[in-house]
Design a protein that fits this description.
Blueprint (H helix, E strand, L loop, with lengths): L6 E13 L4 E3 L4 E2 L3 E17 L5 E4 L2 E2 L2 H17 L6 E7 L10 H15 L6 H11 L11 E4 L12 E5 L7 E7 L9 H11 L3 H20 L3 H20 L10 H15 L5 E3 L7 E5 L3 H9 L5 E7 L4 E3 L5
Parallel strand pairs: 5-7
Antiparallel strand pairs: 1-4, 1-14, 2-3, 4-7, 4-8, 4-13, 5-6, 8-9, 10-12, 10-13, 11-12
Helix pairs in contact: 1-2, 1-3, 2-3, 5-6
The structure holds ligand 2P0.
Length: 332
């Protein structure tokens, strides 16, 4: 809760895009070339406490003092508010997630959504989903889709200042409670090319990039229809095609970039056969080697047996999560 002392704590879930964000038209404001659609991932979450009026700026992530770029990105988000309200003064931020140590699951979406909500509340600003999503976007693009739960669409917007580029919930988590997103951790290696750099290279050098933007924008409406009907087959097929196309932009970049490892490809290619055996399961793949399988609760035993064949380091079963929210108890 917002208090007179300028302290607040927020928690937010991560999300996985089914229609991906891949490429910025404005790097500084994190404005995408196309809209994207995602589902929040419970139980994965990040909790963040923010206190203004500290001795000096301080950032701690998962119990360690953050340095370099990690620290700079947190401070930059606080600066967005401090520019308008210099009276807020130095800020102390503590943040921690419940993500499995095997890594491979992006936590930045949850982290910047929780940070944006906690910063606004600690600054005494009223609860405002749209303003929180706009602020979260400035931390990390995908974070604007973690402010609300369920299925959210980040509309690319048209304005140069980005004021219309934020995410909105289209379906609450209760709309499709049986939907499952199964993260299969095949590799714990840190990726060689960060998403931010990978998408820049696709924008600047891939001849497929404009085709990607067009087809991704068209996918949003189709995905919303499939979700409206809780049609897993339609949604799964669309999510797979969208992920292949996103990765294809990077395969065709200069230099070429593949986030897939041999084990990734082995699993993706085996999915068709698994479906022919009657298991309703599809994949999506972010900028990394670890697929996320889409299915429904009733099919989990078969899907988990399928995933096990690829000797994963870890498997994390997720369901649609709720909104980012404020908590009464603080991390410090
Ligand atoms: C997404 N990804 O839609 C896509 C799909 C990765 C693949 O958003 O540069 O950490 O901070 O805006 O949000 C990962 O990129 O990038 C991402 P920035 P972000 O979820």
């Amino acid at each position: 809760m917002s208090t007179a002392s300028g302290k607040a704590t927020a928690v937010a879930h991560s999300n996985i895009a089914l229609v991906k964000y891949w490429g910025k038209r404005n790097e500084a404001l994190i404005l995408p070339w196309q809209s994207s659609l995602s589902v929040t991932l419970a139980p994965l979450e990040v909790k963040t406490t923010v206190a203004f009026g500290a001795q000096q700026d301080e950032v701690h992530i998962n119990g360690k003092e953050a340095k370099g770029n990690e620290r700079a990105r947190v401070i930059a988000l606080a600066d967005v508010l401090r520019k308008e309200m210099p009276v807020l003064g130095p800020v102390c931020v503590h943040s921690g997630g419940n993500f499995p140590a095997s890594a491979g699951l992006a936590s930045s979406a949850a982290a910047f959504a929780a940070l944006a909500l906690a910063l606004r509340s600690a600054a005494g600003l009223a609860r405002d989903v749209e303003a929180t999503s706009l602020l979260a976007r400035l931390g990390s693009g995908s974070a604007c889709r973690s402010v609300q739960g369920g299925i959210c669409v980040w509309s690319r917007g048209e304005r140069e200042d980005g004021a219309d580029s934020f995410a909105r919930q289209h379906f609450a988590p209760q709309h499709w409670p049986g939907l499952r997103m199964v993260a299969v951790i095949l590799s714990g290696e840190e990726k060689a090319v960060k998403s931010r750099d990978g998408m820049r290279s696709a924008v600047e050098t891939s001849p497929y990039y404009s085709a990607w933007v067009k087809s991704a924008e068209e996918d949003i409406e189709r995905a919303l229809q499939a979700i409206g009907a809780c049609d897993l087959e339609q949604l799964g097929a669309l999510a797979e095609r969208n992920a292949w196309r996103m990765h294809a932009t990077s395969f065709a970049a200069k230099p070429p970039l593949s986030y897939m490892r041999p084990s990734t490809l082995a699993m993706l290619l085996a999915l068709e056969e698994e479906r022919q055996k009657g298991t309703p399961v599809w994949f999506t793949l972010d900028a990394g080697p670890n697929p996320v399988l889409l299915t429904e609760e009733a099919h989990l035993p078969k899907v988990l047996a399928f995933a096990d064949r690829f000797s994963p380091l870890d498997i994390v079963v997720c369901h649609p999560g709720g909104d980012a929210r404020l908590l009464e108890s603080h991390l410090f």
